[in-house]
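Query structure, 332 tokens:
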């Protein structure tokens, strides 16, 4: 069967990728598959570029983990997705429980976003053949703001919103844009894959940001699915609502979790679900690529976060391909 990044590119997408992180890299059998450029053309660090890793103390920056993932992407010819700059979770205590005024928190966000994006500016380059010529574009993409919305469509009341209202979003975007003018800047969120108040709110948020002149280039659809709950038509419609505004979209954290123990019928359904997601991306020209939230059940975040659920990835814990693999290949 065909390798997945090769299939994605042959189908006109920019990449097929995977999340990974430094604790997994000593697993040499895992690393061998991850490194295969025909299989994966893009990497997202699962944790090591988050605020608590990058700036654990105010003005103390630690890029060690993120740098390792960037180095792997460079040596194996992959694109990078930076993940993420401003998020309510995995925040260090000094941010979460600080006593902020709008002025001081603005300065904290500026310093964090500027320093991190500047550090990684221009690390990864990608060649795009346009109709008339071949141009070199920076294809650094950043999840600048992660999960700003509640499922009911209101803004999440985190420390950023409490102090700065929704203005923190444009602030983070402007700062990232100034630090790396060629990077694609995203807002990334979950439960955008269905008809719901949340996708309505995201469309409204994008419209407001565009009116305000904010540098916003894409929306990430995380794609953490429950077995049998993928609707290809809703996913396609929601992605089209975003691309109609002139933005790109990406599936940024795909997995399909199963109530354990998984049966053969479950694995068959999972194959169909993965195929449906890839087909929806294929149906939307502005959907640039698909990223797994790690490729194997051996290193998936699902069992520890959703007790009783698992087997969410296309490779099993022994690094063998599941039916889901063929579902992805067929989707492209
Ligand atoms: C997850 C990581 O995979 C876990 O290792 C960590 O303990 C918690 O965060 N949405 C996101 C990701 O945007 O950053 C999250 O990653 C999964 C949900």
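Result returned for the query:
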């Amino acid at each position: 069967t065909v390798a997945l990044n090769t299939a994605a590119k042959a189908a006109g997408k920019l990449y097929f990728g995977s999340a990974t992180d430094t604790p997994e890299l000593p697993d040499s059998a895992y690393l061998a598959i991850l490194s295969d450029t025909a299989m994966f053309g893009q990497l997202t660090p699962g944790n090591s570029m988050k605020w608590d890793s990058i700036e654990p103390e105010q003005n103390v920056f630690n890029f060690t983990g993120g740098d390792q993932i960037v180095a792997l992407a460079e040596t194996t010819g992959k694109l990078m997705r930076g993940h993420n700059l401003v998020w309510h979770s995995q925040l260090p205590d000094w941010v979460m429980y600080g006593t902020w005024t709008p002025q001081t928190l603005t300065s904290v966000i500026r310093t964090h976003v500027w320093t991190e994006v500047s550090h990684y500016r221009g690390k990864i380059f990608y060649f795009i053949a346009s109709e008339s010529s071949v141009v070199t574009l920076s294809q650094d993409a950043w999840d600048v703001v992660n999960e700003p919305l509640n499922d009911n469509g209101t803004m999440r009341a985190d420390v950023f919103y409490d102090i700065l209202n929704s203005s923190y979003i444009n602030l983070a975007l402007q700062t990232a844009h100034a630090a790396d003018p060629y990077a694609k800047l995203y807002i990334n969120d979950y439960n955008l894959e269905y008809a719901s108040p949340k996708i309505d709110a995201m469309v409204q948020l994008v419209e407001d940001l565009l009116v305000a002149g904010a540098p916003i280039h894409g929306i990430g659809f995380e794609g953490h699915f429950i077995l049998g709950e993928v609707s290809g038509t809703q996913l396609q419609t929601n992605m089209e609502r975003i691309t109609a505004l002139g933005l790109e979209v990406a599936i940024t954290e795909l997995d399909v979790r199963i109530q354990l123990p998984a049966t053969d019928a479950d694995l068959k359904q999972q194959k169909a679900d993965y195929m449906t997601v890839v087909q929806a991306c294929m149906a939307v020209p502005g959907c640039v690529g698909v990223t797994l939230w790690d490729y194997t059940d051996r290193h998936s975040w699902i069992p520890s976060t959703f007790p009783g659920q698992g087997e969410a990835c296309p490779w099993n814990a022994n690094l063998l391909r599941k039916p889901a693999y063929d579902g992805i290949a067929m989707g492209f």
